[in-house]
Amino acid sequence: MTDLLLTGGRPWTPGNPVVPADLLIRDGRIAAIGPDLPADGVQTVDLAGALVFPGLVDAHCHLDKTMYGGPWIPNTGGRTLPGRIANGEGRRDELGLPSPDYAANLLAAMVSGGTAHVRSHIDIDPEVGLRGVEAVREAAARHADRVDVQLVAFPQGGLLTRPGTADLLEAALAEGVDVIGGLDPAGYDRDPNGQLDLLFTLAEKYGAGIDIHLHDRGALGAWQYDLIVARTKATGLAGRVTISHAYAMGELPADEQQRIAESLAEAGVSMVTCAVGDAPVVPVRVMAAACARLALGNDGIRDLWTPYGDGDMLRRIMQVAFRDRLVSDPEIELALHAGTYGGAAVLGIEDYGLSVGSVADLFAVHAETPAAAVVSVPPRTLVVKRGSIVYETSA
Fold this sequence. Notes:
Layout lengths: L3 E8 L9 E6 L2 E6 L8 E4 L4 E4 L1 E6 L19 H11 L8 H13 L2 E9 L7 H12 L5 E7 L10 H10 L4 E5 L8 H15 L2 E5 L4 H18 L5 E4 L9 H14 L1 E5 L10 H6 L4 E3 L16 H11 L5 H19 L14 E4 L4 H7 L3 E6 L2 E5 L3
Parallel strand pairs: 1-4, 1-5, 6-7, 7-8, 8-9, 9-10, 10-11, 11-12, 12-13
Antiparallel strand pairs: 1-2, 2-3, 5-14, 14-15, 15-16
């Protein structure tokens, strides 16, 4: 591993002024930060005033579904959740999904955009079995030195309503999958207590995390947040439970949003928002004020659910900030925090950030301020993973 000195950069850490500083990287970690660090014969890269950010974290995507880099496939999934699920399952064999090649294509694009960590939900049901796990693992292995991929065993077509799925989820956990997923315990499975019983039991048995897709809106969604908070407290799984999408959170009255955010923070339950279409976004400012964990993700990218997406997490941060009407620089930086430090907390990433001792996962862009970088989504000029340059451009 080659030691590296990045000179002339401006590292960003939340809540602190951005000032010029060099970064010395040794053995894959940040060894020193400060002005005019001595080169001592190490490889040196002049960042020419670029901003430096810690590696982006995509806390919610679907690598097994993507057709990134493949031929254009017109979307035929419609607009309803059941319709999209049926379309995805009905056409995946025809289109060669899940595909390690497509997943690897998307991971390569993510790497060039500065993403260092990915959490991918993998469809598991009696028809596809664990083929998605195998495909994504193969894709992740091709990029093992460039990006870290965490897997979620996800019952996209239902859990309790789909006999055999629960056994497959357990098999995935037994084979080392990191997280068990759920899907609308009330709105889709129609048995919230039954689904949560199963998820929390398996999570405790295998030491896994939990990440539940929760699209249910209004009072039904809010009620399930309270159920999940109560289960988390009762089982002692603080820090290991995530509610993804959480559409209801973005449309509830302000006082109810505040109450839920405070209860999430107290219980150690996280949320992930993706700014999908016109669906409500989890309120970034409310979550930050309550010190509740919030992360961001791309969700589906060029798949049978959506023809959109490019895997660029900086662009997704911009979309979340835009959708949530974050307009001042400090507000925009809250979205940036969610796409970096927030995601790292949700995924349980250790030694993350831009401080001495942190793992050297970072990227550089030319922009006047961190907020300007979010809004303009400039090209990445340098991407470093565990101290090694994995992408570089002179553009």
